Automatic annotation (TrEMBL):
<feature type="domain" description="Aminoglycoside phosphotransferase">
    <location>
        <begin position="17"/>
        <end position="219"/>
    </location>
</feature>
<dbReference type="InterPro" id="IPR002575">
    <property type="entry name" value="Aminoglycoside_PTrfase"/>
</dbReference>
<dbReference type="Pfam" id="PF01636">
    <property type="entry name" value="APH"/>
</dbReference>
<dbReference type="InterPro" id="IPR011009">
    <property type="entry name" value="Kinase-like_dom_sf"/>
</dbReference>
<dbReference type="InterPro" id="IPR052077">
    <property type="entry name" value="CcrZ_PhaseVar_Mediator"/>
</dbReference>
<protein>
    <submittedName>
        <fullName>Phosphotransferase family protein</fullName>
    </submittedName>
</protein>
Length: 264
């Protein structure tokens, strides 16, 4: 963490903030609190300006080319699974999916829209020989291949792609944020919608939730959400296998089975 002392000085109390990259930290001094990250995407500035992430305080470029960003460290809490039904979640996701500014910035950063065909290729690469020995994986891949032409969609928006409840932050003044944008893509909004609805909302309430978001539960949307959810679960299983996380991997395999039995 020497690079942080170079940026802040030695009189700040610094602690790791967790996360997969190990590049995020909390810093505190005289009651002032910051969230610091190394090599955040320039996308962060637009997210801050749109009020989607906590406010960006400053950005500094180091001599070695690293870029350090500092955001307000907010007192608040992550959402609980039951909170995902809240209309504020639907409203913020709607704002994200309809933001021209976010879409324009990702395009300027060189992001290309993710097609179903590209995602299917990624899923096939992730499902190595060990996973292909499992009948449920083979069955799911077969479904994805047979239905890839059924999920073509003209609208490509900015998708977060990991809208786990812990990535939603509610501040003490009741402001909602969506954080951890490292996996953002330009894609079918069904990627985010399917993950949220399948994970947190009972199917009998999908129509009501989507009305808060500003969409109808059409047969086309159901097919697309189901297809993308299958793809995302296979990718999740592959990731968990690499991490030797057998417990969560077993849970995801059971979920995949349930998805296949359910159809769309």
């Amino acid at each position: 963490m020497n690079w942080l002392e170079d940026v802040l000085g030695s009189d700040w109390e610094i602690s790791p903030a967790g996360g997969a990259t190990g590049e995020a930290f909390y810093a505190e001094k005289n009651g002032k609190k910051l969230f610091l990250k190394r090599n955040s995407s320039p996308f962060l500035a637009v997210l801050s300006a749109e009020g989607i992430v906590p406010k960006l305080v400053w950005t500094k470029r180091m001599e070695n080319g690293d870029v350090i960003t500092a955001q307000h460290w907010l007192n608040g809490r992550g959402l609980k699974p039951k909170d995902m039904k809240n209309e504020h979640v639907a409203e913020l996701l709607k704002k994200i999916h309809r933001s021209y500014e976010l879409l324009d910035m990702l395009k300027r950063l060189g992001k290309e829209p993710l097609s179903p065909e590209t995602l299917l290729e990624n899923v096939k690469k992730a499902a190595n020989l060990e996973l292909l020995e499992l009948p449920v994986i083979r069955q799911a891949l077969c479904y994805l291949e047979q239905n890839v032409t059924e999920v073509q969609h003209k609208e490509a928006v900015v998708c977060h792609c990991d809208i786990h409840h812990n990535n939603w932050l509610l501040s003490e003044d009741n402001q909602l944020y969506l954080i951890d944008w490292d996996g953002a893509m330009i894609a079918d909004p069904a990627i985010d919608l399917g993950m949220l609805l399948y994970t947190y909302i009972h199917e009998s309430e999908w129509d009501e939730w989507l009305k808060k978001y500003g969409a109808d539960l059409t047969d086309d949307l159901k097919v697309r959400m189901h297809w993308y959810m299958l793809a995302q679960v296979i990718l999740s299983i592959s990731f968990l296998r690499k991490k030797n996380n057998e417990k969560e991997m077993a849970e995801q395999l059971e979920f995949l089975n349930a998805l296949l039995r359910k159809g769309h």
